[in-house]
Amino acid sequence: MFSLCEGWSPGDGGVSLREGLPDPVLSLGQEDKESDEEEPEEPDSTTEAPPSNPDQKPHQIIKFGTNIDLSDAKRWKPQLQELLKLPAFMRVTSTGNMLSHVGHTILGMNTVQLYMKVPGSRTPGHQENNNFCSVNINIGPGDCEWFAVHEHYWKTISAFCERHNVDYLTGSWWPILEDLYQSNIPVYRFIQRPGDLVWINAGTVHWVQATGWCNNIAWNVGPLTAYQYQLALERYEWNEIKNVKSIVPMIHVSWNVARTVRISDSDLYKMIKFCLLQSIKHCQVQRESLVRSGKKIAYQGRVKDEPAYYCNECDVEVFNILFVTSENGGKNTYLVHCEGCARKRSAALHSVVVLEQYKTEELIHIYDSFTLAVSPSSR
């Protein structure tokens, strides 16, 4: 069914790794799987692996710049100002963008990143982090070829991956179009030329290859719609089941949206309201259990630009009640854990400090104050 991202380029060469690193990475290259197993050290880009078949062209390593950080507002001011010409729903920052309410930087999602591609560079099949939308602009001079499948078919493609022992969420895979067609999966296929903007809708499965030398800039957008919010939460829960970190802390974002945005979409409002209710219940149950067991809870309110927290062991988002340990007894090195992982270390939570970032009354006030706004059209 799938090519595991091996052996394609104008010279039948290697391809790039999945572009999913949180920090900027330059010249990320990968030779094909067979060559990689034979040569553990990365050879020079001009080095060719010996062909296993005399009639087969040797594979060649491709290197290209991926996830290059353009978040510095001063250094890239002229370029970032150009992006303000885009419609509000496409901009890196806007009131109607959930990612503008995270409260901290998520590189490549609520900031711009650059991809410097050579012919044959591939971005393997994937959905965006937490199923968010994305914007991609080809600066040129060459073209990119895109393949995209509606979100409705992601489970079918995931099943294909499982049958081929490839992890759908974290693995590197490249669908064979004929197999998709035989499974009645429609595929959008198009060329992105210099100056073209591609909008990837929420949850869209897509994969891309450069057919020429080109530079692309990209970022994510989270429209405040019921469709986007539902898909983001579904992937958030699926990631937790699969032990994959959700790059977007959806509980944290939901509370920030409720605090700062007026929602007039009734479906979206109901979803957020329900999420907040479940969050309050979880915090209340946790708190009561800790108090009953005699565990002291220290209040430590959040400060401006403080990031969301994730468990150091399982990468699940930890909201409000933090279970903190000091690493090797150090004074300034602290690790946050979820309750489950903290109790695995010590069932009675010995040497674990429990911090509370919100008073229960504060959360209840935000919840009660979050009401459905009346849209101008319904007046």
How many H/I helical runs?
Answer: 9
Which consecutive residue ranges, at least 5 long each, have pLDDT under 50?
1-52
Question: Which structural class do you get from the secondary structure elements?
Answer: alpha+beta
> In sequence order, what are the helices and strands, one letter per element?
EEHEHEEEEHEHEEEEHHHEEEEEHEH
For the secondary structure, the number of strands is 18
CATH architectural label of the largest domain: Sandwich
Distance from first to last alpha carbon: 54 Å
Instruction: Give average pLDDT, whole number.
Output: 86
> In angstroms, what is the radius of gyration?
23 Å
Main β-sheet, in a few words?
Answer: 6 strands, antiparallel
Query: By CATH's scheme, which homologous superfamily of the largest domain applies?
Result: Cupin
Biggest sheet strand line-up:
2-3-4-12-6-10
The structural domain count equals 2
Catalytic activity: N(6),N(6),N(6)-trimethyl-L-lysyl(27)-[histone H3] + 2 2-oxoglutarate + 2 O2 = N(6)-methyl-L-lysyl(27)-[histone H3] + 2 formaldehyde + 2 succinate + 2 CO2
GO cellular component, one term: MLL3/4 complex
Cofactor: L-ascorbate; Fe(2+)
GO molecular function: chromatin DNA binding; histone H3K27me2/H3K27me3 demethylase activity; metal ion binding; RNA polymerase II cis-regulatory region sequence-specific DNA binding
